[in-house]
Each structure stands twice: as C-alpha cells, then as structure tokens.
C-alpha cells in the first residue's frame, strides 16, 4: 500500500512489517532522498508512538562515517545495512558480537 505525503514523492515500499511500514522517497523541494517510517493505523498506541519518536531522535543524531550491524538474522542485517547506507554510512555486517569485535580490530 502506497501513501500520499505532501512534499514527498514515494518511490517504493521497502518493508511492510506488523507494526510499521517503511518507504523510500524523494523530498520534492530539494530532490533529497529520504526514508519514511510510519506506524500502521491499528498500531498507533502510546508505546509504539514513543518507540518511533525515540528512533527518530536517534536518527537525527546520526553523523557517522561507518557502522557495524550485528544480528543473526540475515534479512535484518541486510535491511539495517541498507537503511544506514541511505544516510551515507559505510556498513560492516556480522552475525555475532565476537565477529563484530574481530571486524573492529581489523579496521
């Protein structure tokens, strides 16, 4: 399901989860690529709204050149890597904390 959002052109649905949907879009004003995450209507409860606000606050502070994604789920690693790359980060993905420590010590 695509959405209409004034000031943005939605290009693709990236992920449709149980609680949220994530889209790739373009800000019409300056043609800047964006990622848009929103809650499904039935998931707009206080805890989920607060979690989304918290995620937004973290994303606003991202000013990083690189990130390490640690997750044993390949789909989640791929998704998180993609999201961080959209913000310009170089991403290393690994499956465990030990692999993360090894990757960090080699970089």
Describe the structure.
This protein is an alpha+beta fold and 107 residues long. The chain contains three helices and five strands. The strands form two sheets. Strands 1-2-3 form a three-stranded antiparallel beta sheet. Strands 4-5 form a two-stranded parallel ribbon. β2 and β3 form a beta hairpin. The longest helix is centred in the middle third of the chain and has 16 residues.
List the helices and strands and how they pair.
Elements: E1 8-16, E2 20-27, E3 32-39, H1 46-61, E4 66-70, H2 74-86, E5 90-94, H3 97-106
Parallel strand pairs: 4-5
Antiparallel strand pairs: 1-2, 2-3
Q: Which outline best applies?
A: globular
Distance between the termini: 41 Å
The assigned structural class equals alpha+beta
Number of discrete helical segments: 3
Strand order of the largest sheet: 1-2-3
What percent of the residues sit in helical stretches (DSSP H or I)?
25-40%
Number of strands: 5
Q: What can be said about the biggest beta sheet?
A: 3 strands, antiparallel
Overall mean pLDDT stands at 86
Beta fraction: 25-35%
Low-confidence stretches: none
Q: Which features characterize this protein?
A:
107 residues, alpha+beta, 36% helix, globular
Task: Give a quick rundown of the structure.
This protein has 3 helices and 5 strands, in the order E-E-E-H-E-H-E-H.
């Amino acid at each position: 399901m695509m959405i209409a959002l004034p000031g943005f052109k939605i290009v693709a649905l990236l992920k449709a989860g149980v609680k949220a949907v994530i889209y790739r879009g373009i800000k019409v004003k300056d043609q800047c690529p964006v990622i848009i995450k929103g809650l499904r209507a039935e998931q707009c409860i206080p805890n989920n709204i607060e979690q989304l606000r918290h995620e937004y606050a973290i994303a606003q502070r991202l000013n990083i050149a690189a990130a390490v994604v640690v997750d044993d789920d390949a789909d989640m690693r791929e998704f998180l890597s993609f999201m961080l790359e959209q913000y310009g980060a170089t991403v290393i993905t690994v499956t465990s904390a030990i692999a993360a420590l090894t990757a960090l010590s080699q970089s």
